[in-house]
Design goal:
Length: about 180
C-alpha cells in the first residue's frame, strides 16, 4: 500500500485535495477527525480554541506523535487498499513515526498558499473550527507553527503551490495521483 500524507498551513487547500481523493474512492484518514473526536469526548464544543487546546494538551501529555499513533490504529482497522491518504500532519515526530512504521510507502506532500489567500478563504469557508478574525488567524498559525508545522512543510517530498484557480489546483492533484 502506498500512502500520501498531506500537510500545510490551515486553509492552504488540503481539504480540497482530500475531497478530490475521496471522489476517486481513495480512502482518507483525516488526523483532525481524531482531534475532533477527542474534543467531543471531553464534552467541548468544536471551536478553533477548543480543538487547538485538546491537540496541544494531548501532544504534551502523550507525546508529540499521539495523533499519528491514533491515525495508524485507524488505518490498521481498514480494509487493505493500494493507495491511502492521510490528511493533517503537523510535526516532524508524526512524520518520523509514519516513516518508521510505513517505510518507503509513505510520501509527504505539502500544499502551500500565501497568508493573504488563506485569510480570504478563512472568511468564506465558514467551517466550525475556522478562525473568524485576523487575530484568531494569526494565533492559529502561531500555534500550528509552534507544533513544528513549518519544519514538516520544509521536509516534504513534494510541494504543491495553491495560488491559482481551483481548476489549476485540481490539475496538480490529479497529476500527483496519476504519478503515485
Amino acid at each position: 500500500m502506498k500512502i500520501i500524507a498531506f500537510t500545510g498551513m490551515p486553509l492552504s487547500g488540503k481539504s480540497e485535495a482530500v475531497q478530490m481523493v475521496k471522489e476517486k474512492n481513495i480512502p482518507v484518514v483525516r488526523m483532525g477527525d481524531m482531534v475532533w473526536e477527542e474534543t467531543k469526548r471531553q464534552g467541548l464544543e468544536l471551536t478553533d480554541a477548543n480543538v487547538g487546546h485538546v491537540a496541544t494538551t494531548m501532544r504534551k501529555s502523550q507525546g508529540k506523535d499521539i495523533w499519528a499513533q491514533k491515525t495508524l490504529e485507524t488505518i490498521k482497522k481498514m480494509q487493505p487498499t493500494d493507495l491511502l491518504v492521510i490528511d493533517g500532519i503537523r510535526n516532524h515526530e508524526e512524520v518520523d513515526f509514519f516513516k518508521h512504521k510505513l517505510g518507503s510507502t509513505f510520501h509527504l506532500i505539502a500544499i502551500v498558499a500565501s497568508d493573504t489567500l488563506r485569510k480570504k478563504r478563512a472568511l468564506s469557508r465558514k467551517r466550525k473550527d475556522d478562525t473568524q478574525t485576523e487575530d484568531q488567524f494569526m494565533m492559529r498559525d502561531k500555534r500550528e507553527l509552534g507544533w513544528g508545522l513549518g519544519e514538516v512543510i520544509a521536509s516534504a517530498d513534494e510541494v504543491i503551490v495553491n495560488e491559482g484557480s481551483l481548476q489549476e489546483f485540481q490539475q496538480h492533484i490529479k497529476k500527483l495521483l496519476e504519478r503515485i
